[in-house]
Each structure stands twice: as C-alpha cells, then as structure tokens.
Amino acid sequence: SVHLSVNDIARPASPSNSVKGRTRSRGDSLGIAPLAPLLTGDCVEKMFDSRYKTQKERRALKPTWQSNIYNFLERPTGWWCFGYHFSVFLMVLLCLILSVLSTIENHHHRAAEILYVMELVLVIFFGVEYGVRLWS
C-alpha cells in the first residue's frame, strides 16, 4: 500500500529537487513537464491553423450538397425556401381541413378517402425529409 503525506505532494525547492534553476514538480517524473513548451505559444497555434483553418477556408470557398441542403431546411432564406416550407404548411393545413370535414355527415365518405391518401403521402414525405435532415 502507498501512503502519501502532505510533504510528499508539496515539497519545498531544494538542490535535489531543482533542475537547472527551476523547481522540479511531480509532472517531471511523469514526463509531462518537457511537453509544456510544446503546448503553449506558437506550436499550438500552428497545429490549430494547419488542421482547422484550412478546412474552414476550403468549406467557405465551396459549399457541399450536404451543407446546402442543411441550410435550405434549417435556415430558410429566399423564395425557394419560402415556397417549399409554405407548401408543407399548406399540405398539413389541408389534412386538418379534411379531418374536420370527415366528421360532417354530408362530406364524411369523400373527405375520409382523400384524407387517407393525404396522410399516406405526408407520412412518406415527412419520413424522407427526416432522413435527409439526419444526413445533412
């Protein structure tokens, strides 16, 4: 069993605990301290720039199909997006109107037939749209 005391964790600087004028810490024995200069300053900035900056610039220059579809569905701007989302709204509204009409005796049979077809179309449509949203 290992017993640690306060003196083992926080040792004062002594000649045996010092390396070339700096205090030796517990991280030195684990090999962490020599990495400290690499994890600060220009080294980290260069690693970050080489990995992320070029991908960001490349994506900014040429958007992919995936990002275009994501923006179309999630961030609608422009007339095409408005037309698409408005037509989806109208289909759902039509289903609501048909479901109300199916409760009226005079329109029950005809509205129920159309409503059944519309609901099948909407289930398939929303299923495909959900898959496209997950992909994008």
TrEMBL record:
It is found in: Membrane. GO terms for molecular function: voltage-gated potassium channel activity. InterPro entries: K_chnl_volt-dep_KCNQ (IPR003937), Volt_channel_dom_sf (IPR027359). It comes from the Eukaryota. One of its GO terms (cellular component) is voltage-gated potassium channel complex. Its main location: membrane. The keyword Ubl conjugation does not apply. Coiled coil: none annotated. The chain crosses the membrane at residues 82-102, 114-132. Keywords: Membrane, Transmembrane, Transmembrane helix. It is a multi-pass membrane protein. Residues 1-28 are annotated as: Disordered. This is Ion transport domain-containing protein. It comes from Pristionchus fissidentatus.
